[in-house]
Amino acid sequence: MSYARQILNTYQRALKVDNGLLAAAIDAASDCAQACIADNDADLSEPNLTEMVMCIRLCMTCADICTATEAVLSRLADHDPAVGRPLLESCVAICRSCGDECARHAQMHEHCRFCAEACRRCEQACQELLDALK
């Protein structure tokens, strides 16, 4: 069980969203940020750097948005839909874009394959939480 799930289970008051969906989104955002940071570093070591520019840029943006999403979702006890929904929508969008770009390089660069997988998982988890908050 993840730390996010363990901590959510200790809350004294009921959350307005399913603990499992919330924990899954927090964990996926954390994993995606880490994967994007590591992939970005691996991209920078590739011999044909000009081919990797878009991937590098998207990974940097994705890591930033996933980190922000993870932080805000971790404070969802007093959820403000005006903040949470747009952030989740942004996370879904950047994970889709970054995942698509990393998937383009996945056959040649295994690090891009791992990053694409993390992006897809985060995109799905954030979309499921977003759907539950509607």
Q: Care to give the gist of this entry?
A:
The protein has 134 residues and is mainly alpha-helical.
Radius of gyration: 15 Å
Number of helices: 5
Mean pLDDT: 92
In the CATH classification, which architecture applies? Up-down Bundle
Q: Which stretches are low in confidence, meaning pLDDT under 50 for 5 or more residues running? A: none
Number of strands: 0
- Content-based structural category: mainly alpha
Report the span from N to C terminus.
26 Å
CATH class (first level) name: Mainly Alpha
Counting structural domains, the number is 1
Shape: elongated
For the sheet with most strands, the description reads: none
Order of helices and strands: HHHHH
Indicate the CATH topology: Substrate Binding Domain Of Dnak, Chain:A, Domain 2
Please describe what this structure looks like.
- Helix 2 (19-44) packs antiparallel against helix 3, helix 2 runs antiparallel to helix 5 (110-133) and helix 3 (53-73) runs antiparallel to helix 4 (81-105).
- The chain is 76% helix and 0% strand.
- The mean pLDDT is 92.
- The chain contains 5 helices and no strands.
List keywords for this structure.
76% helix, Substrate Binding Domain Of Dnak, Chain:A, Domain 2, 0% strand
Any chance you could write out the topology, listing elements then pairs?
Elements: H1 3-8, H2 19-44, H3 53-73, H4 81-105, H5 110-133
